[in-house]
Amino acid sequence: MAIFQTLYQEVISFLGIGNLLELYRTGNYSSLLTFNGILWVISPVIPLLLLIEITRALIYKRFKIEDYKIPFLIFVLNRFISRFISIAAIAFCIGVFEKIAPFQTTFTWYWFIYGYVIWEFAHFIYHYLGHKVRIFWCLHSTHHAPVAMNLSVTYAHFFLEAPYADVIRTSICILAGVNPPMLFLIMFIDGTWGAFIHVGENILPDGRMGFLNRIILTPSYHRVHHAKNPEYMDTNFCNLLNIWDKVFGTFQPEKKEVKIQYGITREMNPGNLLDVYFGELYCLWKDIRRAPGIVNKLLYIVMPPGWSHTGDHKTAKVVRKAYEEEMSAAAVS
To answer: Which UniProt keywords apply (predicted)?
Structure first.
């Protein structure tokens, strides 16, 4: 019975309906008018959409178990090894940096706008480093390994990525004076939208979402971010507001004539949990072991993925430049 109770609790936790069930049991529906009540109602949205996405795929005979298997296994694995790490990292950063922040904001609508812009900047920094620093890419690559886009991909993360991300994002926000309670609200909104933009074509065939594509970062932009096409690599690092991608020149709309190819560029087995989860770390270890001298070994850790001590670089920047030159030459001829 203990096993079934544990499984039941895990399902309830995954669906995000624990608080709603307790609400139904007690009959205290007035709590829905509170801030927490609103969060309780919103929490099940992404899991519900995932179930709808799978159901539609089954109905239209487009369901492939391999598209969902690895993200599901990663979710189960992470539930056992990283449940509290990220929360502890956030609490630690708030405790350390709130004391030395040059000023403090309050929980008001205008400071909320300021806080969200700062949060988006912090998210950009973490995400950019996740693609441009090899050791951070080893943590982030698990999320990019799936070769199909669907809502289950939002659960595919290496267990250390969330703490690393939250240390960077929380530290920047707190140092910039973002009010901690407001920061948690921003995290909730951003996390919900960040999950939604992984929605697959079984629910949202055109991820541009009409006029919203001109205002915010839609699923279309995030599909571009997950692409391994040379013209799409290392773009669209923001999550909701694409302001910082435009500022730093990493903004890339989806091209109708370019079919998105999901996954990462190295040869890998996307159906192998060990390869998806630890493959990049193993490749980094091989490069470090073969590199001559301590300097080259250290450079492999901090330089972008694809950097080589031989000078034969295959970084995203090099690959994209070579592709653009090839396209330009083809256009001229």
So the answer is: Lipid metabolism, Membrane, Oxidoreductase, Transmembrane, Transmembrane helix
- Domain span at 327: 273-332
197 neighbors 219 (Cβ within 8 angstroms): yes
Confidence of residue 1 (pLDDT cuts 50, 70, 90): low
- Calpha distance 43→17 (Å, rounded): 7
Residue 183 lies in a domain: no
Which residues does residue 227 pair with via DSSP β-bridges, in sequence order?
A: 262
Number of domains, the chain? 1
Could you report the per-residue pLDDT of 115-157, keeping only the tens digit for each? 999 999 999 999 999 999 999 999 999 999 999 999 999 999 9
**Burial per residue of 162-193, b for 16 or more beta-carbon CB atoms within 10 angstroms, e otherwise:** bbbbbbbbbbbbbbbbbbbebbebbbebbeeb
In a domain, 6, yes or no: no
Residue 238 is classified by DSSP as: -
State pLDDT tens for residues 227-286.
999 999 999 999 999 999 999 999 999 998 999 999 999 999 999 999 999 999 999 999
Q: Is position 185 within any domain?
A: no
**What are the φ and ψ backbone dihedral angles of 16, each rounded to 5 degrees?**
70, 30
From the number of C-beta atoms within 10 Å of its C-beta (0-12, 13-18, 19+), residue 105 rates as buried
Please count the residues of the chain.
333
**What span, in angstroms and rounded, lies between the C-alpha atoms of 293 and 299?**
10
- Sorted by sequence, the CB contacts under 8 Å of residue 111 that are 6+ apart come out as 105, 178, 179, 182
Domain assignment of residue 94, yes or no:
no
Q: Which two tokens stand for residue 95?
A: 């405790």
